[in-house]
Every structure is written in structure tokens, then in C-alpha cells.
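Regression report. Comparing outputs from two consecutive submissions.

Submission 1:
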Amino acid sequence: MVNLKNLMVIFSLWIYDKFRFFYNSAALAAKILLESINTKRKDYQMKEERQKENAVQNEANERRISLSEATGKIEFPLTDDLVFHYTMQRSKNALKGLISALKGIPIEYITDVVVENPITLSANGKETIMDLKVTLNTSEIINIELQMYNDTFWISRSLLYACRAYDCIDEGESYSLLKKTTHICITDQEMFREYPEFYAHYLLTNTNKSYGNYYTTDFGINVLNLNHIKLATKQDEENKLVYWAKVFRATTWEELKILAEGNPYIEEVGNLVLEMNTDKYEREILEGKRRYKEVMATAQYEGHRIGHEEGLKEGREEGRKEGRKEGRKEGRKEGREEGRKEGREQAESELIPVIEEKDKRLLEQEAIIQKYKEKYGNL
């Protein structure tokens, strides 16, 4: 006969299992439902945000001015590395025109230019912008760098960038695949103050002046100094390099508009620069990059200031130590001199009374002898 107590235990376990099953099922269903609700809510929020962004962009597009209407200062000009990079990768004609001027070749000779390191604004908010690396006619590499601040290590850095650009083959590939490479720096800084020049070309050459031959013409560095337009040669003017230098130097929309007259490529550049200065999204990225540079510059200045103060403090402490050391040394020397002087003075003060007493006695003796002589005469 089955024990009633055992039946009750079995029944209780069965009820517990069923309850746990239904509880877990209900919890799973609730979780799935909640995730579905959250997903739909996120989708709805994203849709709303996109609609708002589109509305703002449409409004901005409606309010956007053209280059002909722009006036005043260009806040983010073409000398800003992000503006330059983003503008040139979007305007192939302008890029061809710039390379034609920098290389001194007719624009008709340029059949193709490919930007090897294009950027997207969303990925380059505060990061350092890479130089513009371009493959020219599939056979040559042009690496263009903007240098608008003083850099102590510019020479070393430019060599490194040029070498990186020249190293365009993978491991195991033939050296015949290497391409002619020119690193071009556009700057407003004085790289070599003793050798002012508008457009300088540097190549590897034999230092023996009797020969003076080039080691290679497939690797070089050019420097375009925007501050030395007056030193431009006739060839620079004919190559339109002076014209491009003025485009880079333009700081107002009025200057840029004058340069763009009759040149559709520069007009396109002007409109792209204007877009980046007026588009809300692009402008936010430019301002973020500027703030990042300001923070870095402030941190560098603060580090220099703290280091200078710590150096002064250490210098003072070392000076005190050296001073104390020198002081002790000089003190000992002076002490010895003073000791000798005091010793002499003390000796003199002690000997003089003795000498005077002896002199007195000698005088008394001489007086007695003199009286004796007077009384008895010489013996």
C-alpha cells in the first residue's frame, strides 16, 4: 500500500516543477516583450532624431549663402589641414590644378589623380589629420603637408613622412614597383632663415663639387613658403604657383572671390571652403579640432611653465648648496688669514711689554755703569 506521506511529497514536487516551468516561460516571454518594446522605442527615437537632423539640414540648406554673398573673415581657411584635405579630395579639378603648379607641368599631362588617404569628417573630429597622399598618373606619389606652426623637429618629421610615402610595396614585391616620390610642404614658417626662398627643391646629391651628380631624382622634398611670394621666379609665376600661394594666403571672402573670378576650379574650392565654414555639422568638427589644438597647446605651455619653475627651484637649491660649499671653503681660507693676523697681533701685544721691560732694565744698568765710570774712571 502506497504511503500517503510519500504521495504528498511526489505531488508537491510535481506541482513545484510545473510552477517553475510556467514561471520561467512567463519570465522569458516578458523579457522578449520588453526587448521588443525597447527596440521599437530606440527605432522610433532614432527616426525622430533623423527627422530633426534632416529638418535642420534642410533649413540650413535653405539659409546657406553662396560664395558671391559671403563677406568678412574666413574663420577656417584653406591653410587649415582638415579644410585643405577634405576640399582637395572632393575637387579633383582643383587638385589637378594645384599639382600642376607644384610640379611645374601642364595640367593636360595629368590624366589621373587618386587620393590614397581620403578622410571622413565623422572619423577625424579631434585627431591629427594625415597629409594628403596622392598617386599621380599611377606612377608617382605626391605627399602634400601643411605646416602652419613652428616645429623644432620638422626636418626629421618631413624625412620620415617622405620615406613612408616612398615605401609603397609589400614584403616580397619587386623594387621595380617603387614609385617616384615627392614630399611637398606648404608653410608660412621660416624653415631656413639664412636661406629665404619661395619654392625650394631638395634632392640627394654628391657632395663632391667636382661631380655634383644626383644620387637619385626619384626622391625629394619641396618647400613652398607662402611668406616669400616676392622671391618667386618668373617660372613660378608661369606655373601659377604664385596664384595658388595667394589662394592659400586669402583670409577674407573678398580676397578669395577676386582670385576665383574666371577660374571655375578656384570657385569650386571657395564654395567647398564656405560649406565647411557654414555647415553646422562640419563646423562643429572644425571647432572641436581647434579646441583640441588649444588644449594641447595649453597643456604644452603649462608643462613648460611647471618644468621651468621646477628647474629654477632645483637650480636655486643647487646654487645654495654650491654657495654653502664655496662659503665654507672661503670661510676656512679667510679664517686662516684672520687667525694668522690675530695671532700676530696677539703675539705683538704680549711681546711688546716684555721688550719694553727689558729695555728699561738695560737703560737702568747703563745708567749705573755710567755713574761708576764717572766716579772711578775707566778700569
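Submission 2:
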Amino acid sequence: MASLEREGEGQWTGSLEFSIADNLPDSVLVSDASSRIVYANKEACRCLGYEPNELCGLTLSSVELGMRNETWGAHLARLRQKRRLVLRARYRRKDGSVLPVEITATELQVEGQSYRIASARDVSQREWREEHRKLLASLVEQSTEGMALVDRRGELLFVNRAFAAMLGFEPLELIGKKCPLAHPFDQVPAIEAAISRTPQAGDFLGELSFSAKDGSLIAALVHSSALTDEDGCPLGTLLAVRDLSELKETAEKMHQSYRAQRALSLILQSSLFSGSLRQRLKKALELILSAGLPDILPWGGIYVTDEETGELVLEAGQGLPPSVQKNCARILPGQCFCGEAASSGKLRYASADAPERRGDPPGSHCSVPIKTAGEVLGVLLLFMREGHKPDEADKIFMDTAASILGLVIKYTRLEGRIEKSAPLGSSKPQGVNSKY
């Protein structure tokens, strides 16, 4: 700006250069060696809320936060060395509000005097977007719901930690890989096509399965939606993925609990109908083994303590090999697992590979004492899936079933005693069976 001239106290003007500067979209401030503002263009006055004669004559420390008079010399020296500086700063407006700006500063020499020309651009919107982007990134990373961005080829462009952890991966292990959907081979192309069409077709909501790192399948509720840039151009498909495994497991446990409770209720009801003890126990065993508990195998037996000898007598069995029915038809207290359960009054468990179990059906062995008021009336023999030890839910079911069986045994025996003690010719109580 060779034609820079002093027009009045604290103001500078120039025919062409300052006319151009006054029409620039960015704020322009010119300050002298003492940091005093000698020129401000129209945009600078508008942004800062000053009239030109108010702004000129102020020091930069009045409008530029962080700029101090004592560091001005060092700033000019650095500007002289670099010739051009780009820095972030904050302007303080006349009303006290703060405006974030990006300053491009250069040095101007006029008649041996050094001046700093600072062209400042309002970056409040940019900073807002950056902060918004950081906040959004933080929310996505800290979300407990899995998030993933998939391109049109089905490759993962981004995954958050929750998505990666759900499948047992580290995030970087998945970037650039195919989205690990797990469906029958003939369905995969259609599903991938549906997701790739999301930018044009709109949202997708449904249950899909993913392959975890260990090969297991993870059921998930997936919501896919198109992700676009500021100009509306598609960037890919955003997947929000919620792991349904725990929910499905809880639902299955509730369903199993319902079936178990129903089976126990039916056992109680069956005890009210006429029939011999063996018939009632056979029906009860069928209900126990058909309760739908996934870890209880469909074979087992019910032993009843002989009131005279104290031996355990096999009164009902289902799916037991002939060798067991023959060799274990009567068991002495303390003999084998069932005898030990009767003697101790406690559940006896043995794994499938226990040497004492040669000849038994496959599966882990559970002998559950049938007790009523502390008296052992028999043993419920059940078999569980190999490698599964009875958990708390299993024990509650088995103990409850054994308690009901104890009531069935005691009730049926009481019926028999009443029948035997009834005078000849009298009618027997309803439900009493003479075959006991």
C-alpha cells in the first residue's frame, strides 16, 4: 500500500488499497509498532460493533484477547521473521461478547515504520461444527449401542468400541473389512443389497445376526439409515446395532421357568387323580422330563424307599437301559450315587466320565433326595447335558419337583392306610385306589 496517507488523528486512508479493503468480506485491522489500531475496514467495525472513529486509536489488547502490550514487540519480531502468520484468536466486541477468528497477519513497511495487517475471518460457525463434531464423536464412542458406517460395497469405514467389543474385535481389526453379517448363504446378497440401497430407499429396521471373532452368532436389532455430507451427497449407511443376546437369553429363561412351573403344577394336579403310586410317579416323571429345561436330558427314574427294608425301589423309569433297570432296580442306602443321596439327604452329582457310572446312560448324573418334613422318601434320578453342572435354577426346579414327589408318595401311602383301615363294605374315600 504505497499510497498510505494520514488523513486525521489515528486514521489512515489510501485511494485504491483501502477502497478494496473496505469491501473485503473479512475483517481487516492495521496496527502500528505500538499496537495502536490505525485502520479498520467496514467489516471489522461491523463485527466488533464500533464506529470507525471509535475503533481507530485503541490498542490491539482492547479487542484481541491474549494480546498484551508487553509481548507486542516479540510478536512483531516473529512476524518479521516468518513474514506471514496464521493463528487462531478471539476478538472482544464492544458489547463484551467474544468472536472466534482465524487471523492471517503480515507486516507492512511504510516510510520506515512497521505495521501489522491482520485479516480476520469469523470462524464461530466452523468452531461450532468442530465442537459439535467432537461432541458427536465422543457420544458415538461412549455409546453402549454399537455404531458402524458401511460403504456401498458393504465394507466398514468406521466402528465404535461398543460394536467392536460386541463381536470380540478391536475397532481397527474391522476397518476395511466386510460387515460381518451371518445369515444363510443364499440370503446374504439380498440383505447386503438392502443395506446398500438404504441411501436411496430410506431406513431399515430389523433383526440380523453377526459373526463374532470366536465364531459365535450375535443376534442384534439393526437400524440402518443414510449418512450424507453437508451437500446431501451419500457417505454410506449408518448402522445402529443393539445386542439382543442377553434379552433373548432372559426371555428364554423366563419361558423355561414358565414351562417348569407349569410342569410342577401339573404334577400336583395329577396327584389328585386316582391311580397307583407307580402310575402317579410315572406320570410325574413324564412331566418333569418334558418340562423343557434345555440341560435336563429326557431320561431318568424315581426311587421310593421301602418302608420295611429301607431299600430304594425303582418305581418309575424313562429311557433307562435294561441293564440299569435290572441291576439298579433295588439299591441299599449308601450304595452308589442314589444310595448316598438317600443316606445324606443331599443332592449327589457326578460327571459323565465318573468311573462309578459305567453302564449308565450318557450325561451328568444327578441324584436328588425326595424329602418331606426331613424324612427321605426316595430319590429322583435325572441326567444333565454333558459338562453342565446344576445351576441355581436347576437346583430350585429339582428340589421343588422332589418336594412335590414327596407329597405324592406320602399322600398315596396315606390313601392306602385309610383304605386298609376302612370297615368292610364301607365306601372308600374319593381318589383312593385299591391297587396301591
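Expected: both submissions complete independently.
Actual: both completed, but the second showed a warning that disappeared on reload.
Relevant detail on submission 2: The first strand starts at residue 5 and ends at 8.
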